[in-house]
Structure formats: structure tokens, C-alpha cells
Amino acid sequence: MRRRTPPPPSPLPQRDGIDPVRVRLPGEGHWATVREYLVERLSGAGEGVVDGMLAAGLIVGADGHSVAPDAPYVPGMFVWFHRDVPEEISVPFPIDIVYRDEHLVVADKPHFLATTPRGSHVTETVLARLRRELGIPALGAAHRLDRLTAGLVLFTVRPEDRGAYQALFRDRLVRKEYEAVAPYDPRLALPRTVRSRIVKERGVLAAYEVEGEPNAVSRVELADHRDGLGRYRLLPATGQTHQLRVHLNTMGVPILGDPLYPVVTGPVPAGDFRRPLQLLARALEFTDPVTGVEHRFRSPRTLQAWSSYPEWAGQ
Questions:
Q1: How far, in Å, CA of 186 to CA of 225, rounded?
Q2: Could you tell me which of 271, 142, 281, 252 has the C-alpha nearest to residue 192?
Q3: I want to staple 177 with a disulfide (CB 3.0 to 4.6 A). Which of 170, 257, 283, 305 is the partner?
Q4: Residue 310: its pLDDT value, please?
Q5: What's the predicted TM-score (pTM) here?
């Protein structure tokens, strides 16, 4: 099997912790110029945007030189550019560093901050902020948490290590523990292991369960309860989108502050930090694939609804 040649390094530096966009021209096509292909490929950017970038010299080739507006189409060619990023509302909560060595950074992310650039969240993400704050341009995410979930996220320092750490999560070699605050129901028999098949459609906010072979497995334990609330310890064996939120909702105890379950009221508007989802990625445990060290990391955060429920509920 022929191994695909890796792309050349980017000739453009990061901007605000964000990598430039890289586009590879297809091996076959009907385009006469690079411009024709980019206008078709980037049609969502708006009329005249590609022409303006080419005229300003903002699209470059592997040699770092600007691509001319009439440059001929070359199959397999790479071009780079920085996309315009709209001004984002700052998420006014710090990112705490739980652990750092030459291979890893383990961050304790706050609610409302996306893990990696995606959609309308670009510079206000954990990855972009840590690249700027720690001065590590090559920092990469080994996995992701939902924007509304707080807690531990693992980042890699060196690109050559990233695959090994990502494989830990892909192969389910990381023991993950979450904590949630939700209504307390004394009729629920806990602990229990919940198994179901969860489907998340692209463009649809909420995931849902269907009949079929289970693809989502969660162990749910009750750690404590008071004043009609339960503090739940959650041990997911799989990593489906919104898995824990869906499973607790199906059990009749939806997580407090959830804008999707049981009723879709979201997405949460940017800048609205009043009612964080009461879900925390509490702990990560794994054997380091590079050093062989046994790691056990734990977030010291306290979920707001548990520590000050009356005040939180009244917001």
C-alpha cells in the first residue's frame, strides 16, 4: 500500500494561537487556475472574498510566496491563508493547569469554553488560549470536551506524540470519571450500568436513543444527595456525543443547566454565563504511552449547583 506523502510545513505562522487554513488542490479537476478552484471550494465565504485575498497577497504557496490571481491550477498543490475571525465574546474564566511536562499539558477547563476551534468559537477556545498563554505553538488536543462541560482535557506538546495519546482515547485505554448534579429520585436503583444506542445527526442539536446494538455504556452511581438534588458519579465506558447527558435524561434525572435535555432551549447564547451545565470531567487515569508513567489526574472544581444551589437556581 502506497503511503501518502505528508503535507509540507506551513509557510505562515499562527495568528492568535490559530493555525492557518491549508487547502490541497485535488489530483484531478476541470479548473484552469487556482483562483477558479478556490472560488468553488470556498463558495460560502461570500462573493469577491477569494479575489480580494488573492489581490492582497494573503494566499500563499509552500514557498511562502503569494499565489497570483492567474496562477495555473497544479494538481496536488497546497495553499495556505488565514481566515478572517469575527470578534468573539471573551469567556471570563481562567484555565487551570493541573499537570505539565515535556509531553503533556493537562488543563482544567471552565464551563462555556470550547476545547478546539470550531464554528463560531475560534480564538476563545482552550487550545488557542493555551498556545498563547504557555507559548507552545505546536500544542494539540488529544481529545475534546463539550463547550458547556468543565473539567480535565489532555493536550500534547509535541506533534510526533499526538497520535499515541489520541490512540489512548480511541482504544478506550483512559479511565474517565465525571460528576454531575441532577434531581434526586429515591426510586432509582443505583448504581447501575446504562446501555443504549445513541444517534447524533449533523446539524441537529440534541442526540437521541434508538433501538439497536448499544454503542453507549455508562455506569451511574449516587455519590450524595440533599435538598432534592443528587451528586452523581459517572463512569463512561464509551464516548458518544452527549452520552452522559442523554443517559441521565433517560433515567428521569436530567443534568441541571442542560439547554438540550429534556427540552431543547439552546444553544446557549455567547456571553450568557448564568447557568453552567452541571457536568464536570472529574478525573483521568491512564498509562502514559510515551514514558510508561501511571497518571492519575483529578479536577479540584466544585459544581456550582452543589455548593450554592439556592442562589444558583434563582438565576
A1: 10
A2: 252
A3: 283
A4: 60
A5: 0.89
AA identity, residue 161 = D
Element (H, E) at 192: strand 192-199
Residue 30: CB partners within 8 Å, gap ≥ 6? none
Say which residue the cell 472529574 belongs to: 282
pLDDT tens digits for 148-182? 999 999 999 999 999 999 999 999 999 999 999 99
- Residue 241 makes CB contacts below 8 A (sequence gap 6+) with 198, 200, 207
Which grid cell is 259? Answer: 439547554
pLDDT tens-place string over residues 70-121: 999 999 999 999 988 888 899 999 999 999 999 999 999 999 999 999 878 8
DSSP one-letter string for 15-82: BTTBPPEEEE--SS-S-SBHHHHHHHHTGGG-TTHHHHHHHTT--B-TTSPBPPTTPBP-TT-EEEEP
CA distance 238 to 300: 24
* Residue appearing with cell numbers 452520552: 243
Q: Minimal CA–CA distance to 100: which of 252, 297, 299, 301?
A: 297
CATH assignment, 96-313: 3.30.2350.10
192 grid coordinates = 447501575
Which pLDDT value is given to residue 80? 96
Rounded Cα distance between 101 and 95, Å, is 17
Radius of gyration (C-alpha) of the chain in whole angstroms: 22
Q: What's the pLDDT tens digit per position in 16-33?
A: 999 999 999 998 888 999
Residue 142: is it exposed, middle or buried by C-beta count within 10 angstroms (0-12/13-18/19+)?
buried
Q: Which of 295, 205, 297 has the alpha carbon at shortest distance from 246?
A: 205
Cell reading at 206? 440534541
Cα separation of 207 and 215, whole Å? Answer: 13
